[in-house]
Structures are given as C-alpha cells and as structure tokens.
Amino acid sequence: MGEDMAYEVYTDGACRNNQAPGGQLGGWACVFVDGREYSGADGSTTNNRMELTAAIEALKHTPRQAEVTLYSDSAYVVNAFLQDWFTGWERKGWKNAKGRPVENQDLWRELRTLSAQRAVRWVKVKGHAGNPLNERADALAVQAMNDLATTR
User: Fold this and answer.
1) What is the DSSP string of 66-110?
2) Would you give the DSSP letter of residue 41?
3) Is 61 part of the annotated catalytic residue set?
4) Given 40, 42, 57, 138, which residue is catalytic?
5) Of 112, 135, 139, 152, which residue has the fewest beta carbons closer than 10 angstroms?
C-alpha cells in the first residue's frame, strides 16, 4: 500500500450531563494528522454514542483498503476491537454478559463494517493528558455541542 493510503486520526466524543437519564446534547470530532477536521452534534445522545460516531466518521473519511491508525481516549471503543467483544456478542445473539441487548448496536455494526473494509490499528490514548491532537478533537466535539445548544 502506498503512503497515500495510510492515515492517522484522533477521535473524541462529548456529552452534556452524561449521567442524567434520557438523551443529552452531545458532540463528536475527528482530527487527521494531515490537518483535516470533521465534527458534528446530536441533540439527544450519550457520550458512548458520540465516541462511536467520531470513529465512524473518521473511517468514512478514509478510502476502503486504507491503513488507518485510529487514536481514541474511549476504552469503550478501543477495547471492543482489541478484545474482540463482537465474537461474544454475536454468539449470544447481540446480548451482553448480563443477557441484555448490547447498547448502540446500530453504531457498533456500522463501525465494525467500516473497520473490516480497512486495516485499522486501534490505539487507546489518555484523555485530557496534553496530546495536542486528542485535545483538538475534544475541543471540536465540545464546540459542535455548544454550537448546537445556541441554535436550539
């Protein structure tokens, strides 16, 4: 694969008052090492959905067959791939260890499909630890969330 098929991207999701019941205002962002940035928001979501959406959008902005190094501060996203949670979920009919339906199945399925079409290396980074591109992704996610709040 040529160099033009290798990408590095940092992703992040944010959510207001994530512990409150019901959907909350949230934002997502992805920041590519090459300088491209994408972000968006949702008026009724969770932090986990925003983390998943950020990874989905990052992969959508790379071609199939690309080599992608995706950095995320979300253990929820990264560990699902590094620890292959999918095999267990599928074996149990998309139920978790407690026998309940896996949350965010729609996003997990989309992310898994996009990931299978690329060679993705999942890297967990520590959030809010001074990594400039992780911090930029966080700032863009929060900005997208705040921008949506001001238009409501």
Assistant:
1) -EEEEEES-HHHHHHHHTTHHHHHHHTTSB-TTSSBPTTHHHHHH
2) E
3) no
4) 138
5) 152
Contacts of 18 (CB under 8 A, 6+ apart): 24, 46, 47
Which residue among 12, 26, 27, 40 is the active-site one? 12
Q: Is 128 a catalytic residue?
A: yes
Catalytic choice (34, 35, 128, 130): 128
Annotation marks residue 12 as catalytic: yes
Residue 125 C-alpha from the chain's centroid? 13
Task: Convert the pLDDT of each residue in 58-117 to its tens digit.
Answer: 999 999 999 999 999 999 999 999 999 999 999 999 999 899 999 999 999 999 999 999
Q: Residues 35, 73, 103, 127: which is the catalytic one? A: 73
Count of all residues that appear for the chain in the document: 152
Given 27, 40, 51, 57, which residue is catalytic? 51
Tokens matching residue 17: 């008052």
CATH superfamily placement of domain 3-151: Ribonuclease H-like superfamily/Ribonuclease H (3.30.420.10)
Using one digit for the tens of pLDDT, what is the confidence trace for 122-144?
999 988 788 899 999 999 999 99
